[in-house]
Amino acid sequence: MRVNVTINGESRQADDVWEGESLLYVLRERLGLPGSKNACEQGECGSCTVYLDEVPVCSCLVAAGQVEGREVRTVEGLADGDKLDRVQQSFVDAGAVQCGFCTPGLVVAAHDLLNRVENPADEEIREALAGNLCRCTGYEKILDAVRLAATRGETA
């Protein structure tokens, strides 16, 4: 089947998509958007989190056919050209990146939180990021990055 979808504001098509193929596979392997990571393929780690119609989802759990005619925003789509979104820049500035495998999902989850809550409390940050696993940082730098992003104003 052919899937027509708007990704990061651009109309895209993926051909020869099989019925069981995930959105994650289409993004990474068919459309060349490697930002979302393929880790658990069970929705447990959050590394593949993207926006689907502005709602964060684990793209490994979304069948590609479900995105027909819808809008997807990946971690690549948060930046404005070469200018990183405040959440992305805050992860860099706070040193919240080690191996970087979990970072795209954490950035999207934090971005969503800051769109909903201007200055979240630590408990709100922890709850928002609870579905994203990191094996490297111990989460303190990640929390610092979200706090820093909150001080930097609105997300895009």
TrEMBL record:
Indicate yes or no for the key word Cytoplasm: no
Which superkingdom heads the taxonomic lineage of this protein's source? Bacteria
Keyword Transport: yes or no? no
Q: Keyword set for this entry?
A: 2Fe-2S, Iron, Iron-sulfur, Metal-binding, Oxidoreductase
Q: Which InterPro entries match?
A: 2Fe-2S-bd, 2Fe-2S-bd_dom_sf, 2Fe-2S_ferredoxin-like_sf, 2Fe-2S_ferredoxin-type, 2Fe2S_fd_BS, Beta-grasp_dom_sf, Diverse_Oxidoreductases
Q: What is its EC number?
A: 1.2.7.4
One GO MF term on file is: 2 iron, 2 sulfur cluster binding
For this protein, the record's SUPFAM superfamilies field holds:
2Fe-2S ferredoxin-like, CO dehydrogenase ISP C-domain like
User: Which intervals hold domain 2Fe-2S ferredoxin-type?
Assistant: 1-78
Q: What is this protein called?
A: Carbon-monoxide dehydrogenase small subunit
Species of origin: Amycolatopsis umgeniensis
